[in-house]
Amino acid sequence: MGQYYLAIILGEDTNTPEIIRIYMSPFNSGMKLREHSYLNNHFVNAFESLLAPNGIFYKSRIVWSGDYADNEVGQEQNLYHIANDQPTKDFTIKSQILTLEKYKYIINHTKKQYVNKDKHDKYHPLPLLVAEGNGRGGGDYNGINQDIIGSWSRDVFSIDNKIPDDYTEFICKFDD
Fold it and tell me: Is this structure's pTM higher than 0.90?
């Protein structure tokens, strides 16, 4: 079976249980990781707009949670299922999408690293680097560098055209 994913913005602190601020479904872009994790995908671009300098979740902790991911510590469900059990909130980002500037860098403030999106041809690094549960279902990423999938999960991110002074480039390449 295929594994479905939700993009989740978490609370500022690492809590047990985690606080889910919002979650977004890539329903119209394909729920499986490889269906929506490519450059210029409308869903990923919309999510990025939340992390931009003028976005309402600038410098937030994020995760792409799969429905086959491990359960949360002390919980009987994973983040995907916990999010789906929460009441739906009306959350609109239309105005941000319309004014979205193209940002070049994915910045991981937790690890003080960044990824230059211009060095990627097909796959968008953000969903892959923060995905939890990869490798457990159809549609998951299984190409080169699959060992780093999820390695940035739950870290603090922003999207920008400027790199902070003391950050280093994280080189990663994803291909079939």
Answer: yes
Query: Residue 72: which pLDDT band, with cuts at 50, 70 and 90?
Result: very high
d(CA 142, CA 26): 20
The CB density around residue 7, as the number of other CB atoms within 10 Å, is 24
The Cα 39–Cα 91 span in angstroms is: 24
Which helix (H) or strand (E) element contains residue 125? helix 125-129
Could you state, in order of their start, the residue ranges of all structural domains in the chain? Answer: 5-102+121-157
Q: How far is CA 113 from CA 5, 14, 38, 44, 148, in A?
A: 25, 20, 21, 20, 14
Task: Give the chain's count of helices (H) and strands (E).
Answer: 5, 8
Nearest to 107 by CA among 46, 39, 41, 58: 58
Predicted confidence (pLDDT) per residue in 135-153, tens digit: 999 999 999 999 999 999 9
- DSSP lists the bridge partners of residue 6 as 65
